[in-house]
Amino acid sequence: MKIVICASEMVPFAKTGGLADVAGALPLALEKAGEEVIVIMPHYKGIPDAKFAISKLKNDIYHTVIGKKIKVYFIDNEVYFRRDSLYGDKAGDYSDNLERFSFFCKRALELLKAIDFKPQVIHCHDWQTALLPVYLKNYYAKDNFYQDVKTVFTIHNIGYQGLFPKEDFPKLGLDWDLYNMEGLEFFGRINVLKGGLLFSDIINTVSPTYSREIQSAKFGFGLEGVLAQRKDSLFGIINGIDYSIWSPEKDQIIAKNYSFRDLKSKGRNKEALQKLCKLPVKKEVPFFGIVSRLAEQKGFDILAEGINHICKMDLQLVILGTGNLKYHLLMEEMVKKYPEVISLFLKFDDALAHKIYAGSDIFLMPSSYEPCGLGQLISLSYGTIPLVFKTGGLADTVNASNGFVFDKYSSLDLIKTVKKAIKVYADKTKWAKLQEKAMQCNFSWEGSAKEYIKLYEKASQKK
Q1: For residue 188, with 0-12 CB atoms within 10 Å meaning exposed, 13-18 middle and 19 or more buried, which class applies?
Q2: In a structure prediction context, what are the per-residue pLDDT tens digits for the chain, which is 463 residues long?
Q3: Which of 90, 172, 210, 256 would staple 392 via disulfide (CB 3.0–4.6 Å)?
Q4: Backbone φ, ψ for residue 2 (5° rounding)
């Protein structure tokens, strides 16, 4: 099958979030499964062409190869993409993002004709590529080259929709007939994501539970009605993780490699982490780790409510990340108040993240909603038991056999579950079984790719 992956960011070239990880890993997994794949993304200023052997193909098109023979095409535009950031600066989102990404979507489709690559399926990701299915079924509807080309559209986080003023609609080059309640209109504004949901052949999200949640008013961000209408074409596939990077047996960053057959060596990582965090070296005390944005969505509202109570328990806690200033200040206050209990790193540090996954006993991830989540998947690999709220991808990957789950979003229930985890940790036989079960979980991209191939086949059979 011929497949195009179209995304606004992709590892290793440009990244702001998990979308880039998916766009980078999925094509490689599809190629291993025997599919023919190409990728299209913008040619951003920050991409080091020389490092990745990126060369100019023609005018505004650059390209390179990843995997065995996956061609990655970069669409260049000096005005739109030669900027310091991908989507915005300190002042907020770029004011011309509608023009930037509508140009990208059109140019991506035109590129396929220019290189004579007619795919069965184009896989689009998030609002930045949501206009591609709209253009395919409207602007290019009568062009024979694009006949029978189908689209799969992935929502990574429905909270980001691409909302723009009604007055900008003519910039899209679409007929005004598409600006209405059944089209791209959304409470008097243009909603680009809505266009992708309406005109793609198949829609998916990054976990089965999240695909159901977003059909409700609580999680749908105003698009629950559209998604409910398209529920027969809506699916959920859990993201994978790269076990060549996130494996305690192979990880070159951590203090000591280990496996589920050698869990004693995990203790060396705990001791090294305690020293790094300037916390007392205590083998018998459970060490909780957090690698996260400090934001309400990530559960910091209920954590903030319960943090005093939690810090009085017999545990240790390390937090790595940045986010809302009020949580920065609160956690800094907690460090002063409980210097032997809590350690705080207000930064992004990939190496330290590896050490926290390996050295912690329990990974705390109480997100109020989580489309998929990668932290819990990584922590399972390292035998660091996840403690999560039952939502989205967390609900699909963590259960009583491999972690701790609470199903009422409150500080009281979080505290109860932390107490439960401490009690189980004290029973070394139970704990060892829990770790072994966690480390035998498999969330590789190989499995996710097989599910995506099924979706591509569903899309290609659509009339």
Answers
A1: exposed
A2: 999 999 999 999 999 888 999 999 999 999 999 999 999 999 999 999 999 999 999 999 999 999 999 999 999 999 999 999 999 988 889 999 999 999 999 999 999 999 999 999 999 999 999 999 999 999 999 999 999 999 999 999 999 999 999 999 999 999 999 999 999 999 999 999 999 999 999 999 999 999 999 999 999 999 999 999 999 999 999 999 989 899 999 999 999 999 988 888 999 999 999 999 999 999 999 999 999 999 999 999 999 999 999 999 999 999 999 999 999 999 999 999 999 999 999 998 999 999 999 999 999 999 999 999 999 999 999 999 999 999 999 999 999 999 999 999 999 999 999 999 999 999 999 999 999 999 999 999 999 999 999 999 999 998 8
A3: 210
A4: -90, 125
- Indicate if 20 and 107 belong to the same structural domain: yes
The closest of 271, 339, 306 to 410, measured between CA atoms, is 306
Query: What is the C-alpha separation between 285 and 282, in angstroms, rounded?
Result: 6
Our count of domains for the chain comes to 2
Cα(342)–Cα(317) distance, integer angstroms: 5
- Could you list the residue range(s) of the whole structural domain that residue 223 is in? 2-240+446-460
Q: Are residues 211 and 292 in the same domain?
A: no
| Inside any domain, residue 59 | yes
Q: How far from 376 is each of 87, 236, 394, CA to CA, in Å?
A: 27, 18, 7
Q: Can you tell me the distance from the alpha carbon of 360 to that of 372, in angstroms, rounded to the nearest whole number?
A: 22
Q: Residues 304, 345: one domain?
A: yes
Classify residue 351 as exposed, middle or buried by CB count within 10 Å of its CB (0-12, 13-18, 19+). exposed
Q: What is the pTM of this model?
A: 0.92
Which of helix, strand or coil describes residue 150?
strand
